[in-house]
């Protein structure tokens, strides 16, 4: 079996790919994925209360760099779907086969997400069913099947507008049962009394990210907010379609930059009425976060694809990006594993291995902000080791 196809052969296998650029791996996308997963590991292990503001999520409305990590990963999923699907179709894969694979991969991602949430104790009474990998799985399922069904950019634009405007209408103008109309009977986007939280409270009571024995609060990856998150993946898919076109490399970079600026302008203007909010994944947040994702992709595309700066600085990001899910799983499960290894602390009381190592290393840094940042970087470096081993052995874990 041939390992590659010429552009002419590709078109013969699948006429739907006619007019697109020859199939090749986009190194810039791997760099963006690697940078994103590395920063995700850092902010998820930010060193605690001493960490800088930008290493923490906004409490409610507002935006920090940390809030951009998750949507960037979802954005990359959308871009990747275009390249991965086109590559497999070009090799002769049937759409039914790809649809089956998409469903199976989604199920695996959801199961892995529940494992990450529950490890190591798996308390069934309050097991959390929503989560990061679950949301990625849902977005991947929707945009993956959508792209298999229709590969036109126009339908993706319409779907994106439908997701963002539809979500705004639901959150702003649909009365909350038993509570009332947002903006009239209850403050618009109240931290607890909003339609997103109301649905989650009734669908999975006491299985949410924030709950107490007598109070069911909310979940940042709730059901209704999957709708605008799908919009984030659609933005990535539109970027992927642009990059898969036969335009010149310079034109592609310029197009990404224009899309970045446009998305930021529209998003920030919309935020004046529909505030930026990562917890609710508001429509304005989708556009602003998508704008910054486009900025990162523009930078990577310019440096890697246009200027051909491929050696040296790209290496750590390629290692992380080659096994992004494996790196994330390792970073999420390892703290639970290390918590079972007990050491004797400086006060003679038992402590876990992670705390013990931190006390004897980064905790000695006088400035608490730098100490927390040093812990964050060190933990990311620790997670780099197994991914680097897989990379050297050319093992790439694909779901």
Structure notes:
It is a single chain. The protein is mainly α. The protein has two domains: 36-56 and 308-399, no CATH class; 70-306, no CATH class. It contains 14 helices and four strands. The strands form two sheets. The protein has a two-stranded antiparallel sheet with strand order 1-2. Strands 3-4 form a two-stranded antiparallel sheet. Strand 1 (210-212) and strand 2 form a beta hairpin. The longest helix is centred in the last third of the chain and has 25 residues, at 368-392. The protein is globular, with a radius of gyration of 22 Å. The two termini are 23 Å apart. The model is unreliable at 1-13 (pLDDT under 50).
Give the strand order, joined by hyphens, for the main sheet. Answer: 1-2
Q: How many strand units?
A: 4
Q: What integer value in Å does the Rg equal?
A: 22 Å
Number of helices: 14
What percent of residues adopt helix (DSSP H or I)?
A: 55-70%
User: Please, how many domains?
Assistant: 2
What's the arrangement of secondary structure elements?
Layout lengths: L6 H7 L13 H18 L24 H22 L4 H24 L13 H18 L3 H21 L21 H9 L6 E3 L2 E4 L7 H18 L5 H22 L12 H24 L8 H8 L1 H15 L3 E3 L5 E3 H7 L8 H25 L7
Helix pairs in contact: 2-3, 2-10, 2-11, 2-12, 2-14, 3-5, 3-8, 3-10, 4-5, 5-8, 6-8, 8-10, 9-10, 11-14, 12-14
């Amino acid at each position: 079996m041939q390992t590659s196809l010429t552009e002419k052969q590709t078109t013969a296998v699948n006429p739907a790919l006619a007019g697109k650029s020859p199939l090749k791996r986009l190194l810039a996308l791997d760099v963006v994925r690697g940078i994103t997963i590395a920063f995700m590991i850092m902010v998820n292990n930010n060193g605690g209360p001493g960490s800088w503001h930008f290493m923490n999520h906004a409490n409610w409305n507002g935006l920090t760099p940390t809030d951009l990590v998750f949507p960037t990963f979802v954005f990359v999923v959308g871009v990747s779907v275009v390249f991965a699907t086109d590559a497999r179709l070009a090799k002769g894969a049937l759409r039914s086969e790809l649809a089956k694979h998409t469903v199976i991969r989604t199920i695996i991602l959801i199961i892995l997400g529940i494992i990450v949430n529950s490890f190591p104790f798996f308390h069934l009474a309050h097991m959390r069913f929503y989560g990061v990998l679950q949301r990625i799985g849902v977005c991947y399922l929707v945009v993956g099947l959508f792209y298999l069904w229709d590969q036109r950019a126009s339908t993706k634009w319409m779907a994106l507008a439908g997701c963002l405007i539809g979500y705004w209408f639901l959150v702003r103008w649909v009365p909350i049962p038993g509570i009332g109309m947002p903006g009239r009977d209850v403050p618009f986007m109240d931290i607890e009394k909003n339609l997103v939280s109301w649905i989650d409270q009734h669908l999975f009571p006491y299985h949410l990210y924030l709950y107490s024995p007598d109070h069911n609060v909310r979940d940042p990856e709730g059901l209704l907010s999957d709708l605008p998150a799908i919009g984030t993946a659609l933005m990535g898919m539109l970027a992927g379609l642009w990059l898969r076109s036969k335009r010149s490399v310079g034109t592609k970079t310029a197009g990404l930059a224009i899309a970045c600026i446009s998305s930021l302008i529209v998003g920030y203007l919309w935020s004046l009425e529909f505030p930026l909010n990562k917890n609710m994944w508001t429509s304005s947040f989708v556009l602003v976060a998508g704008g910054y994702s486009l900025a990162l992709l523009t930078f990577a595309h310019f440096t890697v694809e246009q200027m051909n700066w491929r050696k040296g600085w790209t290496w750590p990001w390629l290692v992380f990006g080659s096994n992004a899910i494996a790196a994330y799983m390792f970073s999420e499960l390892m703290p639970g594993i290390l918590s079972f290894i007990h050491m004797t602390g400086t006060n003679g009381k038992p402590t876990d291995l992670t705390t013990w190592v931190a006390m004897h290393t980064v905790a000695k840094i006088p400035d608490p902000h730098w100490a927390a940042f040093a812990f964050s970087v060190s933990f990311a470096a620790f997670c780099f080791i197994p991914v680097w081993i897989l990379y050297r052995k050319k093992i790439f874990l694909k779901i």
